[in-house]
Amino acid sequence: TANTGTSTNALRSLLNGDFSVWGLVSNVVAPLWQGGRLRAQIDRAEAQTAEILATYVNTALVAYAEVETTLAAEAFLSDREQHLVVSVEQARAAERLADERYSTGLDAYITVLDSQRSAFQAEADLIAARRLRLDNRVDLYLALGGGFEQLDSLLELTATN
C-alpha cells in the first residue's frame, strides 16, 4: 500500500499542467493546431513583399520615363533656341536695313516699324523658348529625385558664398 501512494503521486504529477513534458509537447504541437494561421501570415507577408516590389518597379519605370521625356525635350528645346537666336539676328539685320532704306528715302517709315515689330516678336519667342527650357530643366531635376528642400538649401549655400 505504500507503493500505491507514491505511484498515485507520480501519476498526479504527470497529469499536472506544470509538468515540463506537457509544456514541451504543447509548444511543439501548438503550431500544428493553429488551423493554417501561420501559413496565412506567411502568404500575407509574401503578398505584401510582392506588392511593395511591384510599386517600386512601377515607380522606377515612371521615373525613367520622366527622365527620358525631359531629356528629349531638352534636345528639342535646345535646337529651337538655336534657331530662334538666328531668327532674332536676322530680324535685327532686317530692322537695320529698313532703317537705312528709310534714311536714304528708299522706303516708308511703316517698313521700319514693321521690321521692329518682327524683331521684338522674334526676341519674345526666344525668351519664351528659354523659359520653357528652364522649366524643363526643373522637371528634369525633379525627375532625377531632386526636391525643392534640397534646392532651397543649395540656394542658401550659394548665396552665402
Short description:
The chain has helices spanning 2-15, 20-29, 37-103, 109-143, 148-160. It has 161 residues and is mainly alpha-helical.
Features:
single chain, 161 residues, mainly alpha, Four Helix Bundle (Hemerythrin (Met), subunit A), 5 helices, 0% strand
**Major beta-sheet overview:** none
Cα separation of the termini:
101 Å
The helix count comes to: 5
Number of domains: 2
- The CATH architecture name of the largest domain reads Up-down Bundle
Instruction: Assign the structural class, choosing from mainly alpha, mainly beta, alpha/beta, alpha+beta, or little secondary structure.
Output: mainly alpha
Number of strands: 0
Helix content: over 70%
Q: Which fold name fills CATH's third level, the topology of the largest domain?
A: Four Helix Bundle (Hemerythrin (Met), subunit A)
Low-confidence stretches: none
Report the order of strands and helices: HHHHH
User: What gyration radius follows from the Cα positions, in whole Å?
Assistant: 41 Å
Strand-residue proportion? under 5%
Estimate the mean pLDDT confidence.
84
Shape: rod-shaped
Descriptive report:
With 161 residues, the chain is mainly α. It folds into two domains: 1-33, no CATH class; 63-160, Four Helix Bundle (Hemerythrin (Met), subunit A) (Up-down Bundle). It is 86% helix and 0% strand. It has five helices and no strands. The longest helix has 67 residues, at 37-103. The N and C termini lie far apart (101 Å). The model has no long low-confidence stretch (mean pLDDT 84).
Question: What topology does this entry show?
Answer:
Blueprint: H1 2-15, H2 20-29, H3 37-103, H4 109-143, H5 148-160
